[in-house]
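Example record

The entry below shows one chain as it appears in the dataset: sequence first, then structure tokens.
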Amino acid sequence: MSNLSKSGSFFDNRLILVLAIVITGWIAWQAHLAKKYPEFYKRAQNNKQQEAPVNKEISPNSTTKAPVEAPVTNAENKKIFTETMISYDDDIWSFKVSSQGMALKEVRLKKFLDRVNTPIEFAKTPETSLFGTGLLGQRNPVDFSVQKTNDHEIVGVAQLGEMKITKILQIDSQNYSISTKVRVENATNAFTGLVTNFSEVLDQNQGGSFFSAHFGHQEFYANHDGTGSRFIVDAEKPKIETYAQTKIASFGSQYFATAVVDRSPIMPSFKAMTIIDSKPLGIGSLTYSVLNTSNKFAIEYVVFAGPKTFEVLKAIDADLTNLVDFGFFTTIAKGILWLMKTIHSAIGNWGIAIIFLTLIVRIIVLPFNLLGYKQMKAMAKIQPQIKLLRERFKDDQQKLSQEMMQLMKEAKANPLGGCLPMLFQIPIFFALYQVIGQSIELYQAPFALWINDLSLKDPFYVLPALMGITMFIQQKISPSTLDPAQQKIMTFMPLLFTFFMISLPSGLTLYIFVSSVFGVLQQIYFMKDNNPVVAKA
């Protein structure tokens, strides 16, 4: 074995520096999320198994202090209208169109199951509905006479005195969307505009924590005034946010969402709110106000209720892809997702796609690893001189640092040269974390054997254990010149990383494990140095 392996290795001071950067970055990221979504993270610290009290007051943090005037519920409507339903059903989804506002109810996605293997469903309770139409200033939705005109079109007409309201739904099942047109004729002076409402029951989720994914939440998203805003809802706190000039309004969860994409000449305002009642609700309301006096008024929009698949979202509107939030490393994450999709299209297994992605990344950074190896070799060459300097200036640390810097400069040795490959992979790690945690493509995607969902943690913790063992092997075959105290600290590093990865998605753990195996093989290859540098004491 060359002396290089005894004097400069993967597990030396460079690793300590990089690990410090990774851990600091992770803590900073979690702190950013906790600051951005305080209510969501607070629940992780105050997890109490009790029913939230009824509270109809608005949170002090709300943008308005006015009482919440919620859209009328189905139970209230029954006192006024007799609700009728028209059903739509194909091999992709099924739903019902209510005569009350022509709202969608019981929207079921047939090709997607939840964690307990039942179809994903929106607006499945009497309190909830999607995209119902009402008159601005009135609580009750418009009562339509509804009929199915063909296999993919449903039309409703409401006659309110002399005023006539027509609503047309054109169904596009492939994109989980419905093009919607609402036309008002013979509008009276009392008519001030239309509203479109959607509502969903809030999940009683438990919040995020340091060692668990933070993705299991519900959130509102608004594309407004040329920018995007989102906030995670809290099932225990009422809240209101309002947005002007809204192009997209959405409410969704980790993998699925409902949304309205406006295509009207009049851009609506959007009010997103949470109401705490017997059943906490998330309610979105788009307001289309009359801008000029006319007896005619028309709006147009596309509604969406389905999986947050990039291709589907982009087919509806490019800005709708922002429903998938990859965070700071969005550009890298999109590139990773594209590469994984390309590999998956040829192989058909997302786990194998992750393995190939890992190998591609390691091959890309191989030249940087070689550069780092050369720097380590240069450092090994001057180890005897460094040892002499340490003995000579053991009582003068400042002089020691100056002499060591001069020595390394003359030898063209950079002690941080080996950090470059690892620093290059840090953004990839965080981007891949987002891709695996947020991409519908990996939702319930099986790999092999016991791993039947790459978006969840390894149920038997086999991959984290293998990863820790591999890192331990890499540490053992790469002796370093660390002092005994540092060596003891580094001995616990594989265990720390195993604990760090134990609750993260198995797809991410698979990436780290394969990368570690590659690192072991690479270390063995580098150790077979035909021209070892022999350091002298």
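Notes for this example: The CA atoms of residues 112 and 119 lie 6 Å apart. The longest helix spans residues 13-36.
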